[in-house]
């Protein structure tokens, strides 16, 4: 069996197999794996990227949902007995269980249809992850890396940047995949902060605050937080209520969330 053996990409799994050897080498160079590092790959497919990494690290864990791909993966990577394949849904997978002996590095060509919820799932386990390198739809990478004032800056940008430093690395065209997707992809590096630059008292309150803030992004903060924050509250926070949500940085959203959660704890 070869890496090119037939396996029809499945739409329901959002499969697009990377086959461009030059791009694979470039991604591996960005990841810069070292022997002995614990790298976990999500959605290894037929093992194109996996082989570039495990040939250096010698051991590796991969999480694959499509059971038909697992025998292909084992055959393609038969020279690496220390490849551990987890047949599982990455959305429900406990990555912290793999980090018993130290932090893990996570890589993957993430399916477009679940990339955002999967990133939120991984961010919730950021304390056991030293870094993440993902291939994603370019627009998702642009949203992750967007800065305050950018059109694409929103909930995903704020939550990702609360936990991580986000670096957009390079673009990958559709021709590098089989089947080719209809959009450009990009490689992103997400490095969880060793110490959070700003700390939310309560993560659920922060998530709710950011979600409410961007619910109607063309409206002002005054409108979006109606019934949650008064004019006096904005004054206390030293935040202009006539601004739109995309003008606020991560620290502003954390300040609002902490103000709300402290007010709730006083009222209880």
From TrEMBL:
This is Ribosomal RNA small subunit methyltransferase A. GO terms for molecular function: 16S rRNA (adenine(1518)-N(6)/adenine(1519)-N(6))-dimethyltransferase activity; RNA binding. It is found in: Cytoplasm. The keyword Transferase applies. Belongs to the class I-like SAM-binding methyltransferase superfamily. rRNA adenine N(6)-methyltransferase family. RsmA subfamily. It catalyses: adenosine(1518)/adenosine(1519) in 16S rRNA + 4 S-adenosyl-L-methionine = N(6)-dimethyladenosine(1518)/N(6)-dimethyladenosine(1519) in 16S rRNA + 4 S-adenosyl-L-homocysteine + 4 H(+). Specifically dimethylates two adjacent adenosines (A1518 and A1519) in the loop of a conserved hairpin near the 3'-end of 16S rRNA in the 30S particle. May play a critical role in biogenesis of 30S subunits. It holds the Pfam family RrnaAD. It is an enzyme of class 2 (transferase). Its EC number is 2.1.1.182. S-adenosyl-L-methionine binds at residues 16, 18, 43, 64, 89, 109. Keywords: Cytoplasm, Methyltransferase, RNA-binding, rRNA processing, S-adenosyl-L-methionine, Transferase. One of its GO terms (cellular component) is cytosol. It comes from Maribrevibacterium harenarium. Residues 23-194 form the Ribosomal RNA adenine methylase transferase N-terminal domain.
